[in-house]
Amino acid sequence: MDAKNLFETPVTSKLHRAEYGLGLVVASVLFFAHLGDVSWPVFVGLFLYIDLIGYIPGAIAFHRSATKEIPKVYYVLYNTMHSLVTQGLVTLVWIWAFGAEWALLALPIHLFGDRALFGNFLKSFGLPFEPVADPGYLRFRAGFEGTGGTDEQPRPVSARPAARTP
Questions:
Q1: What pTM value is reported for the model?
Q2: How far apart are the C-alpha atoms of 67 and 98, rounded to whole Å?
Q3: What percent of the chain has pLDDT over 70?
Q4: For residues 141 and 9, is the Cβ–Cβ distance under 8 A?
Q5: Which DSSP letter does residue 104 get?
Q6: Could you read off the pLDDT of 48-76 as tens digits, one per residue?
Q7: Bridge partners, residue 2, by sequence
Q8: CA 45 to CA 63: how far, in whole Å?
Q9: DSSP code of 90?
Q10: How far is Cα 27 from Cα 152, in angstroms, rounded to an integer?
Q11: Largest interatomic CA distance in the chain
Q12: In this structure, how many other beta carbons lie within 10 angstroms of the beta carbon of residue 102?
C-alpha cells in the first residue's frame, strides 16, 4: 500500500508477488542457461541453508507450541535469512572469497520463489509464525474492498467518511 498503510489488498498483493515472479523468471533463465556450469553441491547448500536456519526451527517451535506463541528469535532468524540484504551480502562475501559462480543464483531463486509462488514475505512479530488470517486484517479488507458484507457497491477511498477521533 504505502509507508503509512502497510496492509495489502488482494490485488496489490498479486502485483507485489508478480514483481518477484519476474525476478524468479530472470534468475531461473540465467540458471538454466548456465546449467552445465553450476556447482550442484554449492547450489543445493545455498538453496537449503536459508530454510535450515531461518524457517525450520521456527516452524518446529510453532507446531510444538500449545499456544502458537513462540520466541521472537525465530522471527528474527526467519527475517534475517529471508532478507535480500542478507543474501546480497552473502553473495558479495562468497564472490570475494571464492569468486563468482552460477550456483549463487540459488539465493535469488529461493527468495523470489518464496515471495512469488507462496506469498511468503518477512514475518511480523504481531502475527503467528505460520500464516493464519488475522481478524484485524479481515476487518480491514472487508472495509477497504467494499462495505463489510452488504450489497452496496464499493466506494473510492476519497468518498469514505473520515475516521472519528475521540
A1: 0.83
A2: 45
A3: 84
A4: yes
A5: G
A6: 999 999 999 999 999 999 999 999 999 99
A7: 5
A8: 25
A9: H
A10: 44
A11: 66
A12: 17
